[in-house]
Design a protein that fits this description.
This protein is an alpha+beta fold and 92 residues long. The chain contains three helices and four strands, in the order H-H-E-E-E-E-H.
Length: 92
């Protein structure tokens, strides 16, 4: 089911706010933990099954972050979402 098909998502009883959180969480996990991520996660390349599990398509655009960039981005995200400022301009 496409994430943009609100009627089908509702008909299946899927929790749209939870789906949105899952999309954000999986993308941040790819960036912050794995360092390897899907570069093109638009609605045509991402859907959910009937149980609400995310399904990614088209892995033609993948990329990898170096450990230094991944660690810097992780620090930035913790500062941003944790109410920082914990990251200095030099670290950015």
């Amino acid at each position: 089911v496409k994430l943009t098909d609100v009627q089908k998502l509702d008909a299946l009883g899927l929790d749209r706010p939870r789906l949105a959180k899952n999309v954000a969480d999986t993308f941040l996990q790819q960036l912050l933990r794995d360092g390897y991520f899907h570069c093109d996660p638009h609605p045509g390349n991402l859907c959910v099954d009937k149980q609400g599990r995310l399904v990614y398509y088209d892995f033609g655009m993948m990329d990898e972050l170096s450990p230094a960039v991944r660690n810097g981005f992780r620090d930035f995200c913790f500062a941003l979402f944790g109410g920082g400022p914990y990251v200095s301009d030099a670290q950015l």
